[in-house]
Amino acid sequence: MIAFIEELRSVFGVGPICRVLGIAPSTFDAHKAVEHDPDLASSRGMRDKLDEAAIKRVHDASGGRYGPRKVWHALRREGRDIARCTVELLMRTTGLKGVVRGKKVITTSPILMTR
User: Fold this and answer.
1) What is the spatial distance between Cα 111 and Cα 114, in angstroms, rounded to a whole number?
2) Which sequence spans correspond to the domains of the chain?
3) In this predicted model, what pLDDT tens digit does every residue of 6-28 receive, in sequence order?
């Protein structure tokens, strides 16, 4: 959403775009301020950035096979105290997924339904 506002701000301005999207212009301003000076980020935001890097490192070391549970266990073995739900959330937001094993179960065959 920030990229969308940034792209159209020279045409429409930040205020009207935020009004249509239903967000406060101060939200956009705060995001841009943190982008320019990372020290302005909240402690949770700073910790999440560090945790994202650690999660990505562990996920890459596994060859992209580990899901949230195994990544969480690997981080715990390294001594990082992080909640499993936080690992799940950060993996979801960064687009990291583990390998899904097995076949999809097909309960109804369309070929048999046509006869």
Assistant:
1) 6
2) 2-40, 43-94
3) 999 999 999 999 999 999 999 99
